[in-house]
Design brief:
With 424 residues, this protein is an alpha/beta fold. The protein has helices at residues 5-8, 21-24, 29-36, 52-61, 77-84, 108-112, 115-120, 133-136, 139-142, 155-173, 183-190, 195-208, 222-235, 243-255, 259-271, 275-290, 297-311, 317-329, 335-348, 408-421, and strands at residues 42-45, 66-71, 96-101, 123-129, 146-149, 176-179, 217-220. It is built from 20 helices and seven strands. The radius of gyration is 29 Å and the shape is globular.
């Protein structure tokens, strides 16, 4: 048997899949969609080894479309053209179902080449990605798809897959593998939410146990598990926290000004090799949570992140630790974040209007213009480089989105402008 155990025992039905009950439990939206047989374009997003490919295969079995499987890491425009050539032919009378793995590795041109066929329904796409599709998949593709987020599987659910794997291996090898107490849970925890990793660890444990006569009992010890999964155990959280819990705790610790906790969660991310998440959340926190209390921090943190990307792991941990501690120990202000959210809320509520004439780019005044001229007032022509004029549209001319924070930096700016503007 040359294929890995994880492939040999891949679930054949939705009920056999461990985890993902927020998507696949009876009555949940994705399960209802799959069981209806009327499959729309889908994007499955989440870490590796948690069932995205398995669900896609189960969907493929339920359709009567011509199935194509492409991996974006090895496929290109030529493969897309070969697939498109079968649209409308006898080879694909009911259309094509494309399973596209790692869609984030397709460039814009490759993704756009699918748009026409996704729109017409000639091709139904199920794409998977380990990266956030809203960052890596083009908006035109996302707008034609429904995104479902798959999550890391809990240790308790992975333990079910581990027991099943030992049972199937026992049948294949005609022996009885007997994991000692604690083995199943140790494998499940060491997998860090990755079912495939856990099942592969089971296979390695069976190999490490050595050959045995048919019908005999083969013990699987904790010592064997620790030897096989020692590095895996370090790469993931033993308490079962999934990726999203870690990045959430990481950002909240920086926001809460706890440098020790922030560095701890940074270490978890870097030990798992997740440099991208560590950098993305750090940049967001510098802007969202420190912001105008210490605006100089933004280019400082950006420079540290650039250095981390340039040197790579493991050395990247040094500039990132510096930046994380700086963010955690800096004064905090979310006034900028509050201002843009308030402005966006107004805009989405329809509170807007024409741009005031004095702020528009210069236009020709038509014959119907009763008061021709732009009347823009140039602030630099006035004392302190400021004079009053209306900048917001008439409909919201009295709106206020920004409120100065209580920190020293913003209060200094407030005092300056109160003096200049006379509290207008």
């Amino acid at each position: 048997m040359s294929s890995p155990l994880a492939d040999r025992i891949r679930p054949e039905t939705l009920d056999d899949i461990v985890g993902q009950q927020h998507l696949l439990a009876p009555g949940r939206a994705l399960r209802n969609i799959i069981e209806s047989g009327n499959i729309p374009n889908l994007i499955f997003y989440g870490p590796s080894g948690i069932g995205k490919t398995t669900v896609a295969r189960i969907i493929a079995q339920k359709t009567n479309k011509r199935l194509f499987r492409l991996n974006a890491t090895t496929s290109g425009i030529a493969d897309i053209k070969d697939m498109v050539a079968e649209v409308g032919t006898l080879a694909a009378p009911n259309g094509i179902l494309l399973y596209l793995d790692e869609i984030q590795y397709f460039n814009k041109k490759q993704q756009q080449s699918l748009l026409e066929y996704l729109e017409s329904g000639d091709i139904t796409m199920i794409a998977s990605t380990t990266e956030n599709p809203y960052f890596y998949v083009y908006n035109a593709v996302i707008s034609r798809c429904t995104v479902f987020e798959f999550k890391s599987v809990s240790s308790e659910d992975i333990a079910l897959a581990v027991r099943r794997a030992f049972r199937i291996l026992s049948e294949e090898h005609a022996v009885t593998y007997e994991p000692e107490e604690g083995v199943t849970l140790a494998i499940a925890r060491a997998a860090g939410g990755d079912v495939r990793k856990a099942v592969n660890a089971v296979e390695l444990c069976a190999m490490a146990a050595g050959a045995a006569e048919a019908g005999s009992a083969v013990p699987i010890t904790l010592d064997t598990v620790e030897q096989i999964t020692s590095r895996s155990a370090m790469r993931y959280d033993r308490a079962g926290d999934d990726h999203y819990d870690i990045v959430s705790a990481y950002q909240k610790s920086m926001r809460g000004s706890d440098p020790d906790a922030a560095v701890h969660y940074l270490a978890r991310l870097l030990d798992a090799g997740d440099l991208a998440s560590a950098i993305r959340r750090l940049l967001v926190c510098a802007c969202e949570d420190v912001g105008l209390a210490y605006p100089q921090i933004i280019p400082v943190v950006k420079a540290a992140c650039d250095i981390a990307l340039q040197v790579g792991l493991p050395e990247a941990e040094i500039p990132l630790a510096d930046a994380v501690i700086l963010v955690a120990t800096s004064p905090k202000s979310n006034s900028g974040n509050n201002a843009i959210k308030a402005a966006m809320a107004d805009l989405q509520a329809g509170n807007s209007g024409p741009i005031p004439r004095q702020l528009q780019n210069k236009h020709f005044d038509g014959e119907d213009q009763e008061n021709p001229g732009q009347f823009y007032i140039y602030p630099h022509d006035y004392p302190n480089h400021w004079t009053y004029q209306q900048y917001l549209p008439d409909a919201i001319k009295d709106a206020h989105y920004y409120a100065f924070g209580e920190n020293k930096n913003e209060q200094a700016a407030k005092a300056y402008w109160d003096k200049i503007k006379g509290n207008k």
